[in-house]
Specification:
Elements: H1 2-18, E1 30-34, H2 53-56, H3 62-75, E2 80-88, E3 99-100, H4 110-123, E4 128-135, H5 143-146, H6 158-175, E5 179-183, H7 196-217, E6 222-223, E7 226-227, H8 233-244, E8 252-256, H9 261-277, E9 284-289, H10 294-305, E10 311-316, H11 334-339, H12 360-368, H13 389-398
Parallel strand pairs: 1-2, 1-10, 2-3, 2-4, 4-5, 5-6, 7-8, 8-9, 9-10
Helix pairs in contact: 3-4, 4-6, 7-8, 9-10
Length: 401
């Protein structure tokens, strides 16, 4: 089955490359959450100590609480998840969620914790999952966003980081949902305030890491994140990928933190300008944004109404728009749902020929109509009037059933 899914991803890449640039002026994105920490009520503040899911999953009561949260969130409209996995060689006495990467392997109990978490994510019905890597300490080429007091990057840690990424990727691919994606470094594109030394080591690190990844696994499930609104960050990211000589990612993954609706919209428009200047048509994924914020939701909708570029997903981060307080779990996307009502899928998504199987015959029907717009088109699995990547996501999630 996995070989078939890989083939489908390769074929989709070809189709996206030749499909018309204009798919739709407006598309409904998937709504999701960053579920990296468990913060049950009545926890106050934004303290992360002993709340990391992968760090604490083996502790009494944590797994059951997460399972309950996963179900409640899925039942109330959260359809995709993102996990930010911080790591460094030696975590010392840190208990906020970072895990050790010594030897380029994810050791127990964290390895088993991740496997169990992914198993529970899949069992709860989620079909799409993103894992973002977050190198820390002397493993981090950005040295904690250029903090002069942070540990200096040790270039000899590169091989450890690469081995760790490969190890974790294999776990996620084996135990995660049907659609899994990887961000090689959370908000990894260079920031404009970095010193020349740090900036260059960030560029060198990502050039080599992206090259390694694409050589090993291809470019279909990988990206490199950037912070929206940071001058030059996306331009630098594009330059890094061009320098590798490898294919661009299938999507661009940004963190979007706008203090107001207008601020968020301006940041999105800046992203659009840069992508157009470089003739790049890839969709966006908002990998982080303020929690359940209606202003951000409206800004994204206004942006999508002004462009042909889809936004695949919106994944909220557990930080309120006041930039000071944090919500408790389970997380809600109620305000995003108000702006982006989710279509109701057909009873068995992907069974386009009604033979009670989701297989290659259905795939052929989906691809025959990919990119078409209208009512009642075969392949419009989510019923939004178009056959696009969102229908494909539903199809892959049910392939083989």
């Amino acid at each position: 089955m996995m070989k078939k899914i890989i083939l489908l991803l390769v074929l989709l890449t070809i189709i996206v490359a030749v499909a018309p640039a204009k798919i739709s002026a407006y598309t409904v994105p998937m709504l999701g959450a960053n579920f990296t920490h468990i913060r049950p009520s009545p926890m106050d503040g934004c303290n992360l100590e002993n709340t990391g899911i992968v760090f604490t999953y083996d502790k009494p009561g944590v797994r059951q609480t997460v399972q309950d949260n996963l179900k409640q969130m899925h039942d109330t409209g959260v359809s995709s998840l993102r996990l930010l996995l911080w790591f460094e060689t030696d975590i010392g006495g840190n208990t906020w969620g970072i895990v050790p990467s010594v030897g380029g392997k994810m050791s127990d109990p964290y390895r088993t914790n991740l496997i169990q978490y992914l198993t529970d994510v899949k069992a709860a019905g989620y079909t799409t999952f993103t894992l973002s890597f977050g190198a820390g300490g002397s493993n981090d080429p950005m040295e904690n966003y250029g903090n002069p007091d942070a540990a200096k990057y040790d270039p000899t840690k590169f091989d450890e980081n690469w081995q760790f990424i490969q190890d974790v990727r294999a776990i996620v691919k084996q135990y995660g949902p049907a659609i899994v994606r990887f961000d090689l470094q959370n908000e990894g594109a260079p920031y404009d305030w970095l010193t020349d030394r740090v900036r260059q080591q960030v560029i060198d690190y990502h050039t080599k890491m992206y090259t390694n990844y694409v050589n090993a696994f291809g470019a279909n499930d990988v990206t490199l994140g950037f912070m929206g609104g940071v001058p030059g960050a996306l331009t630098d990211l594009i330059s890094i990928i061009k320098a590798t000589g490898k294919p661009f990612p299938m999507w661009f993954h940004l963190s979007l933190y706008g203090s107001t609706e207008t601020d968020a919209l301006n940041k999105l428009n800046d992203v659009e300008t840069t992508l157009k200047q470089n003739n790049l048509q890839q969709p966006l994924v908002v990998g982080e944004t303020f929690y359940n914020d209606p202003g951000t939701a409206n800004a994204i909708k206004r942006y999508m109404q002004s462009t042909t570029r889809p936004v695949w997903e919106i994944l909220e981060w557990p930080l309120n728009v006041d930039n000071k307080t944090c919500p408790n779990t389970p997380y809600s996307v109620s305000n995003f749902l108000t702006v982006f009502p989710q279509p109701t899928p057909i009873p068995k998504p992907g069974d386009l020929n009604s033979d009670n199987n989701v297989d290659i015959n259905d795939y052929n029907l989906l691809m025959a109509n990919f990119g078409k717009i209208g009512t009642g088109i075969v392949g419009d699995i989510n019923g939004d009037g178009q056959v696009n990547i969102f229908d494909y996501n539903l199809f892959v999630g049910n392939y083989g059933k």
